[in-house]
Amino acid sequence: MKKGFLYILLSVRLCAFGQDHNLDYYLGRARDNSPLLKDYQNQLLSNGVDSQLIRASYLPQVNGVSNNSYAPLIGGYGYDNAVTNGGQLSAQVLATKTFVGRNYLSAQYQTLSLNQKTIGNATAIARRDLKKTVTAQYITAYGDMVIMNFNRETLALLQKEEGILKGLTQANIYKQTDYLTFYVTMQQQQLIFRQSEIQFRNDFALLNYLCGVVDTAVTDLPDPGLKMSVLPDAYSSEFYRQYTIDSLKNINQHALVNYSYKPKLSVFADAGYLSSYPFQLGRNFGTSFGLSLNVPIYDGKQRQMKFKKIDIAERTRTGYRDFFLRQYDQQIAQLTQQLRATESLIEDIRGQIKYSSALIEVNAKLLETGNVRITELVLAINTWLNARNLLNQNYTSRLQIINQINYWEAL
After folding, report:
1. H helical segments located in 64-175
2. Is 292 helix (H, G, I), strand (E, B) or coil?
3. Which of 48, 84, 114, 171 could bridge 71 with an S-S bond, Cβ 3.0-4.6 Å?
């Protein structure tokens, strides 16, 4: 029996090692299956098409135009023939081209460039969010597995010792009540194991669900092996970069509003058939060309209203930026403090496990000679089990805190 309990003390295992489905595997599957990342990729492609559309919109535009009408006079009543000429028959090819300043065209391209940077930055943040979410769920499932494996091993060893204790009880070395006390402890451990197994299966299935993995098989998860990453200052992160891009967008939008109120010059030319109906049908093939100038004069002060909207958007951007800068360092400091406190607690728990293990070892020696009460042994075992479970829980908490800190890592 002493040998069995010593085996319990030596079976302090934090994980079951498997190499098939580690954290990198799940992160890769999550990225491959993420509809959001695919959406951003398609937005980048669409933004490239928008650039081509701008370029094409300022090339000569050629259209075929046909207008045909007939205005009869019936009994002397009808449209004035001097106005309608009795009708019109036309079939023309019309070409137009609008001239814009190079600065206005550059501002439009700048809009697309900023949109591309926004999408790229949003993609980087989405990858961070996805990595954090999947890693957090992986850690949760891994922690469940550690607890489940520990509970399984503990149950197996208690079952083995229960058989030995049963024989000692039948030999009248221990009372029946002593045996029942140990047996109840073993039964409780069996229920704990079953509950931990259900929890692991549920969280493992949720991990597959988050990553888009269609698989009902349950496998061991290797230790994620997370380490603290190098953290950038707040001004170098994607989160702050978005505020910079938004500021450039507001400046660009201000320029676009100004350019939209500049005079616009267009040229046109047409060729084809144009005739009043039904006279002189064969003589009216020809061409025409000209200029069109549009000069904004007054629009109800809409330009000033648009500028006000841009100013409001800029104040909103500044408010969010300042809040982010205030919270960034504070959040990192709080997480670092939590990590240190958790690591300190883990060391204290290891010390408690050491003393609990020594107490069980002493009781195991006394048990062979019948010089220890089973209640004392059970109490020592429960103290050790609680300490081990607390160690597993805090080890998992430590990984979760590191995951939260690494969310801000430099990429």
Report:
1. 81-84, 102-170
2. strand
3. 84
State the alpha helices, DSSP H only, in 212-301.
238-260
CB atoms within 10 A of CB 353: 19
Contact 360, 386 (CB under 8 A): no
pLDDT of residue 281: 62
pLDDT tens digit string along 75-126?
A: 878 887 877 777 788 889 999 888 888 888 889 999 999 999 999 999 999 9
Residue in 269, 312, 315, 266 with CA at minimum distance from that of residue 291: 266
pLDDT at 14: 42
pLDDT at 15: 42
Q: Tokens representing 374?
A: 């089973």
DSSP assignment letter at 74? B
Task: Read off the pLDDT band of 279 (50, 70, 90).
Answer: low
pTM, 2 dp? 0.84
CA dihedral 306, 309, 310, 315 (to 10 degrees): 160
Distance CA 91, CA 270 (A): 10
CATH fold for domain 2-58+100-261+301-406: Outer membrane efflux proteins (OEP) (1.20.1600)
What is the mean pLDDT of the segment spanning 141-156?
A: 92
**How many whole angstroms separate alpha carbon 271 and alpha carbon 91?**
9
* Tokens found for residue 336: 């670092």
Q: What CA–CA distance (Å, rounded) separates 257 from 112?
A: 16
Report which secondary-structure segment, H or E, holds 264: strand 264-275
The angle subtended at Cα 230 by Cα 229 and Cα 234, nearest 5°, is: 120
Inter-axis angle of helices 374-406 and 102-170, to 10 degrees? 170
User: Distances from the Cα of 100 to the Cαs of 103, 265, 346, in angstroms?
Assistant: 8, 7, 69
| Mean pLDDT confidence for 268-296 | 81
Assess whether pLDDT exceeds 60 at residue 285. Answer: yes
**Largest pairwise CA distance in the chain:** 135
Distance CA 180, CA 185 (A): 9
Place of tokens 């100038």: 293
